[in-house]
Amino acid sequence: MNKPILTGVVALIPVIFLSGFVLAQSAPVQTLRGAEVDEPIPLDQIHKNVEGRMQRNYRQQPPLVPHSIEQYQIDVRTNQCLSCHDWTKAGERNAPTLSMTHYLDRDGNELDHIAGTRYFCNQCHVPQADAPALVDNVFEPSSGN
């Protein structure tokens, strides 16, 4: 390629880049929740809690929480889930006991208290809700095998 053509191509690169950037910035952004970012929306209008227990969709799916956890405190010092679901209290509170896997450390040693790797329940367990899918999904539950 000769020098004038190469110079012209190099000069066009920033122009094309900037015009693409301007075009991308002018495209309207649509929200998935149906409101502006700074507009508060009561969650109970969007996602209704489902009473009773929902069936799991695959073998190792963490159970869904069949009650609201909106006011539950789960932080480094406190985990309100354990006030009912810890093995020492589950029987008297008529709540399901945590799986024994929650009482194993990284090396597989049994502990008398919940393992630190399983302490923050809402990493895996979420409240069950009748929520619309945000994206198309063709997932089908397993047959139970």
Automatic annotation (TrEMBL):
Entry GO MF terms: metal ion binding
Cellular compartments annotated: Periplasm
Nuclease among keywords: no
Entry's Gene Ontology cellular component terms: periplasmic space
PTM characteristics: Binds 2 heme C groups per subunit.
Database matches in Pfam families: NapB
Chain residues that bind heme c 1: 67, 81, 84-85
SUBUNIT field: Component of the periplasmic nitrate reductase NapAB complex composed of NapA and NapB.
Record-given protein name: Periplasmic nitrate reductase, electron transfer subunit
Species in which this protein is naturally found: Ruegeria meonggei
Source lineage: Bacteria, Pseudomonadati, Pseudomonadota, Alphaproteobacteria, Rhodobacterales
Recorded name of the encoding gene: napB
